[in-house]
Amino acid sequence: MESALIIEKFILITVVLVVSLVVAMYMTLVERKFAGFFQDRLGPNRAGPFGILQPLADGVKLFTKEEILPANANKLLFIMGPSLAMFTATISSAVIPWGRDLVFGDKVISLQVTDINVGLLYIFGVVSLGVYGMMIGGWASNNKYSLMGTIRAASQSISYEIAMGMAIIALLMVTGTLSMRGIVDGQASTLYGLKGTEGLGWNVFYQPVAFLIYLICMFAECNRTPFDLPECESELVAGYHTEHSSMKLGFYLFAEYINMFVSSAVISALFFGGYNFPGQEALVNAGVASNVITILGLLAFFLKIGFFLFFFVWVRWTIPRFRYDQLMRLGWNMLVPLAIANIGITGIVMYLTGHIN
Amino acid sequence: MESLTNRKKVVEQKPMTFAERMYLPAIFQGLTITLKHFFKKKATIQYPDVKREFSVNFRGIHSLKRDDEGRERCTACGLCALSCPAEAITMVAAERKPGEEGLYREEKYAATYEINMLRCIFCGFCEEACPKEAIYLDGDIPPASFDRENFVYGKDKLVEPIHKK
Amino acid sequence: MTVTQSLFYFLAFVAIFSSLLVVLAKNPIHSVLYLILTFFTLTGEYILLNAQFVGIVNIIVYAGAIMVLFLFVIMLLNLNVQTEPQKTNLIKFIGIITGGIGLVVLTGSLKASDPSNLVVIQNVDMGLVKNLGKVLFKDFLLPFEIVSILFLSAMVGAVLLARKETK
Fold it and tell me: Shortest CB distance from A318 goes to which of B31, B40, B46?
């Protein structure tokens, strides 16, 4: 029994890891391809049909490039930086519920690596650690641009974590649980109790302001445009990874894409119903096998993740980068007060509608 | 001072309204613009596979023409070399031997005829100077190469193939 | 020895070892990194006690926010062996005295408290968010609110300090 569980979890972890790596790998292509589409170009299309072999070519290129260790760098920390970035990016997918349980006879396979009851806080913890990869790597390169990028990364991530946490508190008041699976299952009900909206009771309709704040903070935490000041090339060469070459650079870039994937999964699970989709009740009532619904739910979840990944790219090629003081003003002067007001209003509304006593 | 054209517009800088200060409408406007471009027909022409049509007066690589019977028109008069502002053309004249009437139209012909494509500015003066209508700039764009020698085009590259006419 | 016990001893060893290195490391950046490692081992210990909430909050608050600021400041100050002034004997002496007093206070308070109550956890699920919230908001409501007012005043103070003089 014990060993069967361990094997099951091991396979699940491997699958999740491989999926997030492959998604990250192909996000590099999608990013460049869509960048082209947004600018009326075609994007990379020489390596294989539609350029689908481009990520492999990039991988080979990064692996075979020369490894450069700056002479005055702190060797151990210099290598530890990208490794830490990669590590923190990959471990946060552990608490994401990818789908309902698969049932084979009397064997139940959970499509979630672990359902700890502080799942959401775990994600926050991992996100807050993500900045260490950049800080350590940037500081260890002994380069002023890297240090500037590092400092920007650290202060940006701390500032936006606060607004992010505040936004999530309002969400938690609605859901009443910190477990990721609990939050997703809570969204399976109807929307405002309306008929025919089963599976559409998504938190985004109950907490739109929290969703907006979370979305903005998500961009900031992933260091994506318009908040990509840590690697702002017009001011800082390449920011914290200026001195990193070869696959060490590759790890930093890869970690960014994995972060994008994971945060898309998290925001879909928190606000967009995760694996719930409209019409699932009707399918259950029609007697469709539960495994089929699970697979459909998984597809719905990945569709939502795909939309947010697309949104990341979409925003990147639309909105220009913030100036540093604008970034800080947005974080502290607008998002934090807005989030606090949202908590207050949520509390009042919940009290008036009798959800709390 | 009175303006010269009366087309001057005074730009007024009003303080932003609350909706403008929220920036969200502007952001969505921007997002729709980029999304429109996402689905637009792409402007890219995939060059080596697909080529754009040249304009009618495009001047490309020179070609030395033949007449209706397949004889070289060039008589090595040197007017093209003389008119060339870039001094890209050199030639060596030779006299036609008996029995070569099928090859060269005139009694004098160019034994070697070389154009340096690195010097050539594709002005078309040679074309206009030629009294025999022997040279035309009706070819393609000269291809790239790693060596300078490859840009000196001899008769082997310039003269029209015989089967063409 | 069970898995839990061996994990406990491993984490305890790493915690003590890395906290010693915090003091002994020459490079202040390394000190901070060892301190972060210490926090991680402490989180491991909390999780062994089934105190998930405290464990995760320890990571978020200490490792994720406070230590980032520490690292931040130390990186900006660019402290290293050359620039750091040599400590005089007087400062060393004062340090030993204060440290020793701290040790005495700690041992005294440990001795005064009832040791058997420290080890035994009455309720295994005590550390879960639900139970913790109930305890905080029912049994310890007044101290909890006073602490939050303390934090609020600290925040207001920080904002006042950081504000630009308008004159």
Answer: B31
Average pLDDT for A306-321: 88
Residue of A39, A45, A319 with shortest CB distance to B27? A319
Span A227-247, mean pLDDT?
A: 79
Q: What does the pLDDT read at residue C83?
A: 59
CA gap C13, C41 in Å, rounded: 9
Each residue's pLDDT expressed in tens, for chain B with a length of 165 residues: 677 787 878 888 888 777 777 778 888 888 898 888 888 888 888 888 888 888 888 888 888 888 888 888 888 888 988 999 988 999 998 888 888 888 888 888 888 899 999 999 999 899 889 888 888 888 888 888 899 888 888 888 888 887 644
CA distance A316 to chain B (A): 10
Return the residue matching tokens 């008069």: B77
Confirm whether residue B113 is marked as ligand binding. Answer: no
Q: Was B162 annotated as part of a binding site?
A: no
Q: Is B74 annotated as a binding residue?
A: yes
Please, do chains C and B touch (3+ CB pairs < 8 Å)? no
What are B47's two structure tokens?
């060059």
Contacts of C36 in chain A (CB under 8 A): 132
Gyration radius of chain C over CA positions: 20
pLDDT above 90 coverage of chain A, percent? 0
| Residue among A106, A114, A117, A95 nearest A8 (CA) | A114
Is CATH 1.10.8.60 what the domain over C3-127 is classified as, yes or no?
no
Q: DSSP labels for A278-336?
A: TTHHHHHHTT--HHHHHHHHHHHHHHHHHHHHHHHHHHHTTSPPPPHHHHHHIIIIIIH
Q: With an 8 Å Cβ cutoff, are B37 and A40 in contact?
A: yes
Distance between CA atoms of A295 and A261, rounded to whole angstroms?
20
Q: Could you tell me the residue range of the domain that residue B137 belongs to? A: 63-164
Question: Any idea what the CATH number is for the domain that residue B87 is in?
Answer: 3.30.70.3270
Q: Which residue of B has its CA nearest to A335?
A: B22
Are B37 and A315 in contact (CB < 8 Å)?
no
Q: Which residues contact B29 (CB under 8 A, 6 or more apart)?
A: none
**What is the helix, strand, coil percentage profile of chain B, to 5?**
25, 15, 60
Query: What does the pLDDT read at residue B165?
Result: 45
Q: Show which residues on chain A lie within 8 Å of chain C, measured between beta carbons.
A: 77, 116-118, 121-122, 124-125, 127-129, 131-132, 135-136, 139, 147, 150-151, 154-155, 157-158, 161, 178
